[in-house]
Amino acid sequence: MIRRTCFLTILLSCWLGAIEQTRGGDAIIDAAAFATLQQAADAIPQSGGVLKIPPGTYELSEPLHIKTGDTRIEGSGTATHLVNKNEEGKPAILIEHPDWVGKKVPSADRLWRVNLANFRVTGNEHSGAGIEARYIEEILVQGVSSSYHGGDGLRLHFCYEDPRVSDCLFTYNKRCGVSIEGCHDIIVSANQFEENQDGLHCIDSFNLTMSGNNLDDHLGDGVVIENTYGSVVASNMIEECQGWAIVLDRDCYGITLSANVIAHEFTGGIDLRDAHGCAISANTFTIVKQVGVAVRKESGSITISANNFSDTWVGNDENGKPLRKRDPVPSKTEPNPNEAAGILLEDCTAVVISGNLFSGLAGEAVRQEGDCTKVLVHGNGLQELETN
């Protein structure tokens, strides 16, 4: 039997075009039906919706401005590729209330619940951030690849309530992979960062949870946290930063750095420049150059416990003779490829160093400079290694 289709239904469908009304009244927008991505984004109603961007390369000369809350921007994986052609320092994607561009937004007027997922965005050395979000509450960035920008891969500016970044890739950005400023209850998990200037900045914020990320080959530092309270950086792999793996500065307090593998850093492992009431525990520092952990003059009330500081020694062979370490031949970047460093205390106060193992270090396990007071060093192990 052939079913008849109502002419009115056909007419209505054509009139709606690329906007599919959902049961809740929001919209699903197909970007392919519009001349530009901005036109497609502008079609999202104020109540929110989903902008679906199909596979393809989309060149942007001005930022793609997302102006609505309760909105999801969804690509088709890395086959959806947004390319920022702007060379005036502008971002590829700007998420900001349309009435508050460049201004400070009252809390009552901020956009809520914007989600970006499953696409790739790239820029150039003169472009701005890949994605810049300003005063967006409960933002979620997931499964996004952001690379080659003149600015940050992702910049969150006073996205105060519950920002979340997960399963993303941030690579080859001239500034940070992720830059966080003025945020609260932050999740950064299961992302990969490679060869940005710095991996992540968290500035003037509260309650960062950073776990399960992989950071490699940064030209500066891995993780920089400033003026931030009550946070945890745990179970991350941080390798081969030209600077420090982790830096705490400007009145940080109540932060735990634990169970990270900090490997082959060229300047040092953890630098406590201005940190208080912090715990450094159960981390592995392997062939970390110059300094494993530094506690500076402005820091205090620090515990450093159950960490392992080691070089590349891998044990004895079947005959009980020591195995060779890593190739000892010097290079331009490493006069001593096996160099492993311990702890530096610099004019600091109230530090406990307990239960750590220092194995095959090039210098002292714990070195003090200046007037260090109220320091307890107790129950640590020291292993001097014999090599072929």
TrEMBL record:
Residues 318-329 have a biased composition (Basic and acidic residues). Keywords: Lyase, Repeat. GO terms for molecular function: lyase activity. Residues 315-338 are annotated as: Disordered. Gene3D superfamilies: Single-stranded right-handed beta-helix, Pectin lyase-like. Residues 165-309 form the Right handed beta helix domain. Coiled coil: none annotated. InterPro entries: Beta_helix (IPR039448), PbH1 (IPR006626), Pectin_lyas_fold (IPR012334), Pectin_lyase_fold/virulence (IPR011050), SCF-Subunits/Alg-Epimerases (IPR051550). It holds the Pfam family Beta_helix. This is Pectate lyase superfamily protein.
